[in-house]
């Protein structure tokens, strides 16, 4: 996977008693495993379970101890969890923030203790404790969703008009705006020239954000939109930012939508339930982000920091099978631009599901109809 061997340099702070100032004759070595504190947002969403598991096993295989905590989408809980990790003496923090704007005070403590902090998937704002960010190109995720709609509806050449509604993610998640903007920027020319209509008028991120990326809230919101604007009108596109919101929207459409056509529904993550909907035709696509690859890149950044090395732009080229771009000019956390390693997402439709089997993430079920987790 990588050109260099992660495990070789892995594990321990070895403190010979002699070199630590103890009596010369005490030559016994005390080995202390380094501990990584991994804070994940929630176990409610499939992807964070996969991320957590993948990260934990990589660090453990390389000889580190891992303190993995999920905070059930509660920002206060995540602060408590991270404070607990700092008290317990972790050597590095790897954090996928519930709300990237709420961690500044906690991370000041990390900085005082010289504990490196790496942001995982979601940027952490307003802190100078953050050194690196590992994620996918978030704006590109939204662009892929927008481009998919553009090509499905032949927006560059069509003379027809279509109705679209946007469903975005949680406002506290820094990524959510990037996804929305990426999709909106691609489709804006067609909204401006009246090829696409947003019947609800909800055309800003704030108006379409979905608390906690919750399927239930997305479902409820879509039911209300359908009742108010689509009683006798066709909906052609639900531009959903991710799979959990897409699931809620698909449920709302199944129960409350009376139109003749099947609306295009976009998504992100490749959750099992959504891949099933893609096979069944009730979701059109998902933007797949290989979280095992994301975890592998994060592992390498953390490993270098723990070894006292400085990850540089060169690191991005060192992964054999993972395409990673180094970017130090796009992600500003309010204090400075954060050095970012950004992986590349892929569009998955019913046509190319086999790719997910080939990359080892999923396997076909016994009837070779639906995908299930490869584990
Ligand atoms: C985003 C993440 C997405 C999606 C979403 C919901 O920050 O990048 O992959 O899972 O959160 O948790």
Description:
By secondary structure, this protein is α/β, with parallel strands linked by helices. It has 2 domains: 159 residues, 3-Layer(aba) Sandwich (Rossmann fold); 130 residues, Rossmann fold (3-Layer(aba) Sandwich), CATH 3.40.50. It contains 11 helices and 17 strands. The chain has a 7-stranded mixed beta sheet with strand order 4-3-5-6-7-14-13, sandwiched between helices. A 4-stranded parallel beta sheet has the order 9-8-10-11, with helices on both faces. It has a two-stranded antiparallel sheet with strand order 1-2. Helix 1 packs across helix 10, helix 4 packs parallel to helix 5 and helix 7 packs across helix 8. It starts with 11 loop residues before the first strand and ends with a strand. Bound molecules: beta-D-galactopyranose. The site of beta-D-galactopyranose has 12 residues, from loops. Beta-D-galactopyranose (GAL) binds next to loops.
Task: Identify the notable features of this structure and list them briefly.
375 residues, alpha/beta, binds beta-D-galactopyranose, 36% helix, Rossmann fold
How does the SSE layout of this entry go?
Elements: E1 12-16, E2 29-33, E3 35-40, H1 46-61, E4 65-70, H2 75-88, E5 92-95, H3 104-112, E6 117-120, E7 130-136, H4 138-152, E8 162-167, H5 174-192, E9 196-197, H6 205-208, H7 215-229, E10 237-240, H8 243-256, E11 264-265, H9 272-280, E12 286-288, H10 291-306, E13 324-327, E14 339-343, E15 346-348, H11 354-358, E16 362-364, E17 371-373
Parallel strand pairs: 3-4, 3-5, 5-6, 6-7, 7-14, 8-9, 8-10, 10-11
Antiparallel strand pairs: 1-2, 12-15, 13-14, 16-17
The protein binds beta-D-galactopyranose.
């Amino acid at each position: 996977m990588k050109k260099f061997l992660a495990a070789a340099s892995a594990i321990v702070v070895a403190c010979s008693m002699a070199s630590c100032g103890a009596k010369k004759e005490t030559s016994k070595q005390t080995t202390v495993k380094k501990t990584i504190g991994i804070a994940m947002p929630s176990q409610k969403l499939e992807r964070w379970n996969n991320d957590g598991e993948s990260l934990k096993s990589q660090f453990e295989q390389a000889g580190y101890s891992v303190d993995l905590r999920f905070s059930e989408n509660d920002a206060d809980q995540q602060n408590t969890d991270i404070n607990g990790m700092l008290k317990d003496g972790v050597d590095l923090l790897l954090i996928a923030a519930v709300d990237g704007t709420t961690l500044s005070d906690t991370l000041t403590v990390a900085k005082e203790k010289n504990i490196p902090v790496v942001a995982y998937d979601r940027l952490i704002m307003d802190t100078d404790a953050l050194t690196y960010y590992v994620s996918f190109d978030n704006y590109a995720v939204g662009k892929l969703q927008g481009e998919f709609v553009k090509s499905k509806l032949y927006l560059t050449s069509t003379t027809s008009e279509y109705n679209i509604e946007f469903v975005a993610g949680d406002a506290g998640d820094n990524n959510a705006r990037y996804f929305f903007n990426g999709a909106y920027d691609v489709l804006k020319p067609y909204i401006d020239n009246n090829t696409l209509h947003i019947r609800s008028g909800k055309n800003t991120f704030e108006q379409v954000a979905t608390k906690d990326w919750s399927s239930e809230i997305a479902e409820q919101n879509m039911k209300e939109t359908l009742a108010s604007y689509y009683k006798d009108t066709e909906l052609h596109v639900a531009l959903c930012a991710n799979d959990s919101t897409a699931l809620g929207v698909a449920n709302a459409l199944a129960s409350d939508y009376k139109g003749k056509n099947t609306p295009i529904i976009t998504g992100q993550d490749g959750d099992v339930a959504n891949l099933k909907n893609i096979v069944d035709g009730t979701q059109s696509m998902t933007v797949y982000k290989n979280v095992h690859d994301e975890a592998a890149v994060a592992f390498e950044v953390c490993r270098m920091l723990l070894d006292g090395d400085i990850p540089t732009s060169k690191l991005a080229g060192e992964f054999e099978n993972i395409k990673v771009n180094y970017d130090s000019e796009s992600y500003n956390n309010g204090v400075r631009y954060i050095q970012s390693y950004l992986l590349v997402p892929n569009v998955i439709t019913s046509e190319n599901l086999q790719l997910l089997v080939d990359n080892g993430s999923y396997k076909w079920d016994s009837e070779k109809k639906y995908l299930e987790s490869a584990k």
